Amino acid sequence: MELVFIQDMMKVEDTSNTLRVLIATDCHLGYMEKDEIRRFDSFQAFEEICSIAEQKQVDFLLLGGDLFHENKPSRSTLVKTIEILRRYCLNDNPVQFQVVSDQTMNFQNIFGHVNYEDPHFNVGLPVFTIHGNHDDPAGVDNLSAIDILSTCNLVNYFGKMVLGGSGVGQITLYPILIRKGTTSLALYGLGNIRDERLNRMFQVHHKLVSIGCLDNLLEDSVSIIGLNHLIPQTPHAVQWMRPQAQEGCPVSDWFNILVLHQNRIKTNPKNAINEHFLPRFLDFIVWGHEHECLIDPQEVAGMGFHITQPGSSVATSLIDGEAKPKHVLLLEIKGSQYRPTKIPLKSVRPFEYAEVVLKDEADIDPNDQASVLEHLDKIVREVRNLIEKSRKASVSRSELKLPLVRIKVDYSGFSTINPQRFGQKYVGKVANPQDILIFTKAAKKRQSIEDKIDDSERLRPEELNQQNIEALVAESNLKMEILPVNDLDIALHDFVNKDDKMAFYSCLQYNLDETRNKLNTEADKLKIEEEDIILKVGECMEERVKERSLHSKGNMRITSSLQNLQVTRNYGAVRKRP
Amino acid sequence: MELVFIQDMMKVEDTSNTLRVLIATDCHLGYMEKDEIRRFDSFQAFEEICSIAEQKQVDFLLLGGDLFHENKPSRSTLVKTIEILRRYCLNDNPVQFQVVSDQTMNFQNIFGHVNYEDPHFNVGLPVFTIHGNHDDPAGVDNLSAIDILSTCNLVNYFGKMVLGGSGVGQITLYPILIRKGTTSLALYGLGNIRDERLNRMFQVHHKLVSIGCLDNLLEDSVSIIGLNHLIPQTPHAVQWMRPQAQEGCPVSDWFNILVLHQNRIKTNPKNAINEHFLPRFLDFIVWGHEHECLIDPQEVAGMGFHITQPGSSVATSLIDGEAKPKHVLLLEIKGSQYRPTKIPLKSVRPFEYAEVVLKDEADIDPNDQASVLEHLDKIVREVRNLIEKSRKASVSRSELKLPLVRIKVDYSGFSTINPQRFGQKYVGKVANPQDILIFTKAAKKRQSIEDKIDDSERLRPEELNQQNIEALVAESNLKMEILPVNDLDIALHDFVNKDDKMAFYSCLQYNLDETRNKLNTEADKLKIEEEDIILKVGECMEERVKERSLHSKGNMRITSSLQNLQVTRNYGAVRKRP
């Protein structure tokens, strides 16, 4: 299907055939909920999003995951979230589209239908959301915090996968099929799955695509498929169910959207999802998880689809990408055409980011700390002036909010100064006086090309306490020789933070499966004797441990249980990337 | 107002003037949620209660607190609870009563109205509930887990007090005024407050009552009060607002119910609420917190009211009181008359409790452990037979449930045996094989008369780890010489388990106020010189520490943070009494 951007295609408004969707992601409700200054930021941005949805009279609101910042949101966060949803989603506005797919396949809760069809609720603004990595399902019941909202009938939670099959697992994506007049939308959701795992699933899929059998299968099958059957696009790890052809609506007339929540920026290829792995029948992708706002749909060469990356509605890392203005996207779809309109969020706290390399600055002297302090003060003042200026230019609700300021200082050849002490004079002037400055040594970093993670990530003390983790891993009697420590870290994290009793078992199972698969492949090739297998298992494990430790800096997302307690007290700081 | 029990007063059914209320309490949803056998018990009982409400076509369901077992219920518990409420409370049944009081005074959430009046929800079975000690409000926002349900519009949460005033504090009870035809109900709710504190409040009140000024104030004021004013019954610590007299409905025509959630059984007088402290204008009291089912309304001599104690719907302590059959109460109110009908709960897991004093048994020998084991086995078999027999007599849903069995063994003169090992042969036959036996030495206990707490409470390992608490208290640098350790324990508990940042501050403030009050009283009497005051503070504190330590065994309800982590893993065992 060819996509057309026609800015005035809908000049004569034809609302009965045009789906109007507001798209946002990564609201991180509850972020910094214990910080005196920033505690309401996430809620204010989310409320603004809802009010835009109301004002623009959209058909529904589509969210890309990480609605909640914490896997177990506090009572306060749950109450505030439910209050906002109840105030905006329940009203007398008529819902003007229909869900025509099997809703029990789309929605996992016991009610099994789209929320506005429930006769006991007056839903006027339906919300559709997947989960992210922060609010992913966990525990024996595989429940997400989103399930609480879904059980309350305030959101439609989709894209929750049951990882069936053996080995890497198998997922099947059943689209929500939406009709409004002559417009047909197939909405695919894929809640966050660990990147490495999803990556492997897509690679199986990718191999099939490249030998060309997939498109044939799809095209050949369309004509013979009956009304109540969906076509699996691949019988392998990732199955995309396609709507069947119907009279007056061939399969190619469905507008296909995918919402996912994964790493897009590659720190290493195993750690992010390659856009080229996604199937070509998709028309439009909503990419959650990445906090930088790149909301204008970008075409992916050769794939025939565009990607929008709305970015978070609240800055949870004080990095360059989060300093860009935050937006949401109004997407109007009519038949196979769409019009994207980006809308700025006005309630977001101002945030300015700057970098400085001390040794490149002329007016300072490594032996004169006063000159360094003065220079850094000058930069902060400049940044604050910048914010003031842009404030005067635009009258917005964020007018009264203290700004966030982050200066990344390359101090090579200099000594660091105490960021807390430096920030004291900005108390009451800046929202984050305690961590305005962050120190880095760029020279060192440039030496290793592979290691591209941002220093600001690495320096955040709440991110990681390797000693604690190792101590706990040692305590759990699981040896590094058997399982890669990185997988164990993740299992430990899930066990502690998500009450996932099965975390260690799953970790073990996954690694056994991987090893078994590898052995089978090699056995075919080399005809290994049975007595060699034990030796081979050892080698194989060793190899995988090495491989993991090479990349371990890039995908660490762990805190120990002790640390987590501390983090919770210390104003719920970021636990994972982003 | 005189109360009349007339069993056939409503023989000719007059539903338009009769309020039908189903009363239950202490459902402890989520209790034992990680136990393979008992995880659904609390939910099944609650669902049965809701289905009785549906079947009996009551006007509303009234709950007496501790709907949740945990202050921070798990996602799973929240989801299950919301599912049940949504299935039973939302329907097309008409609500046939009106709430005529100022609803913003009755319900604390931002919506500020009774749930069935919300135009966006189809509420057919309203639920009214107070909080208990398990699900009491905590944290900066003073939110209870009940607030989550209230924000979802699934329950009407009332009786949440803001403890205003200085010193001991001040509370005002605004009744929910309910009308159905000619029947008028004033429903007072008082969510759990620490017994010691509420006790002191009531004592202030009690003094006023005894000098007779209170009734005069009330009676005198009635005639001059306007339509929009309520009368405070006492200007002191506990204010009871009374409905005003209206044409055709004098104040005495209101039927007055109080729902509270406090200790009733006295381990020491400071630790429980004396029934005689409650005002005489009340007609009927629903007493939550006590788990023993004493559901038949008991008259309190000289007070003019009756008390029902429904008891818990799930046994959370394997003590004698919990072994009695569980019931809920159907209360039909017509004008000033009422009819109580108790209804047995059929889904409750069978539980039999027995006591044995080894030295009184003829067939056993202290030096022959085999004879002891055999004897205990015989008792367990007998108890199980008893359960089997009663099962055959009544066909109930609990038929398929493994029974709970608890044998309290007085082992004076004998040595204990390992309860875990003893229980192994009952795996698959009894729901609690690991703790069928509990050992006690009665002789010792009888020596101290004051110390009346049940040994079974004291022996439960999850209840208390004094060493841990003391270590943590020591760590927190707060000295026992300044604050009673018991108050500190409670502050620590609230800080750890309820995220109450203000816990230590409140504890300090309360103790300072108490000391200041005491000093003021004594200063008046004795005209103490200013230089003596410092000395007096010391004495006063010392005295209070002593006083607290005397009673400390009775009102311990603390676990340390470390212990709590452990408890959560170990199948969410009881943390508090009962």
UniProtKB/TrEMBL annotation, chains A, B:
| Active site, renumbered | 134 (proton donor)
Record bears the keyword DNA damage: yes
Can you supply a Gene Ontology BP term from the record?
mitotic G2 DNA damage checkpoint signaling
Into which family does the record put it? Belongs to the MRE11/RAD32 family.
One GO MF term: manganese ion binding
**GO CC term, one of those recorded:** site of double-strand break
SMART domains the UniProt entry points to: Mre11_DNA_bind
- Could you tell me which residue ranges the Mre11 DNA-binding domain spans? 338-495
Ordered alphabetically, the record's keywords are: Chromosome, DNA damage, DNA repair, Endonuclease, Exonuclease, Hydrolase, Manganese, Meiosis, Metal-binding, Nuclease, Nucleus
- The species is Cocos nucifera
Assembly, per entry: Component of the MRN complex composed of two heterodimers RAD50/MRE11 associated with a single NBS1.
Role description: Core component of the MRN complex, which plays a central role in double-strand break (DSB) repair, DNA recombination, maintenance of telomere integrity and meiosis. The MRN complex is involved in the repair of DNA double-strand breaks (DSBs) via homologous recombination (HR), an error-free mechanism which primarily occurs during S and G2 phases. The complex (1) mediates the end resection of damaged DNA, which generates proper single-stranded DNA, a key initial steps in HR, and is (2) required for the recruitment of other repair factors and efficient activation of ATM and ATR upon DNA damage.
The name of this protein is Double-strand break repair protein
Which lineage do the record's taxonomy fields give for this organism?
Answer: Eukaryota, Viridiplantae, Streptophyta, Embryophyta, Tracheophyta
- Main site of residence? nucleus
Q: Which domain of life is it from?
A: Eukaryota
- InterPro entries on file: Calcineurin-like_PHP, Metallo-depent_PP-like, Mre11, Mre11_capping_dom, Mre11_DNA-bd, Mre11_N
This protein's record includes keyword Manganese: yes
What cofactor does this one take?
Answer: Mn(2+)
Pfam families, A to Z: Metallophos, Mre11_DNA_bind
- Quote the subcellular location field of this record: Chromosome; Nucleus
